[in-house]
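Bit of a strange request maybe. I'm writing a small parser for structure token strings and I need a real example to test against, not something I typed by hand. Could someone generate the tokens for this chain?
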Amino acid sequence: MLTRGQFRDWGGPAVAMLAGVLALTLAGCGSISRPEAEPARIGVAAAASSLDAFRFVADSEGAGQAFLNAWQAQREAGGAQSVTALAVSGGGANGAFGAGVLVGWTQTGERPVFDLVTGVSTGALISPFAFLGSDWDERLAAAYRDEDASRLTAGRWGALRRPSLYGDRSLRALVGKYVQPDLLTAIAAEHQAGRRLLVATTNLDAQATILWDMGAIALAGQAPGQEAAALALFRNVLVASASIPGVFPPVMMEAAGPFGTVSEMHVDGGVSTPFVLAPAGLTFWRPEGVMRPKDLYVIINGEIEPRRTITKGATLPILMRSFDTLSKSDLRAHLIAAVAFASRNEARLRYAAIPTALGADSLAFDRASMQRLFDAGLATGADGTAFEEVIPEAQPPPVAP
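Reply from user aminoacidic:
Good idea to test on real output. This should exercise your parser:
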């Protein structure tokens, strides 16, 4: 039997691909019953959905620009200056490191109030607290030190009765414990003040990264009679973003469209992107005025540097090493793109990542392992060594013809 330790250091695509390989061996066992639907109907529902007020497709230039235009108008009305942003990546149990970095950063007295916070996977679980600021550090720390976290991958595999190795009961319970109505009320207030909180999920049906405007969801919940529905959607998005396919079951999102309700399948945002600084459809966007980026931060809940070792010459070790290499390559590619975006807009970009010496394990949800990572993040956050600034190499001046 494959143990959780054999998932060591994996993130996003790597975990998803191994889970897919495992799922092939269990095909026809546990499954989710879904009605047949014409692809055209799914496409129309995705284009005109009851959930559109709260989300947009990351690689849609038009949708991304519409979101940014509305945000820009609010920022201009509020007299904002430039944008300070934080992106928090996926990484499973390694999120304890990122949580520690934030709490340690508070101790320096230099932690910014972010205009934009985005989260993917475990980063999605961190993002509401990072968005609300240092006053919520105690709840953030408690979530990643909670003994209940150790139950996320506890028990026997259940792939014979569900489409995943583990159920999501413990994950939902943990999210429900820390995402309470008071958190949505606080997020709604910050949203009205012109700040934004985005969380990414992957819509498997559409094969698309979906960015959810969590502040808009929270604000909708402040209307009479809407609190329960908003709280349920908010929690659902966080669970979906953290649901590694094959490890945890997908989250089905009910979206009402012009031809009826379509049940969309959403999984870990890390399947399609390790972190988000700008919508993918706006890669070459050159923001100006109040939207001009100034300071950009990325917390990577995983390793970015290679870990050199001898790969065993057997099928499973070769697959695991290959997928781990793919994951790190994808992460570095996104970081390079982020550096290019920052350089193009004369912004500063800094990132924090887990040192390889820590031997992080993304599925080690036991309390001792998570405490060790939290303490490591806390120490680097508190002494100012967590973030490394990326300074692009100077380009030579063009040669005159």
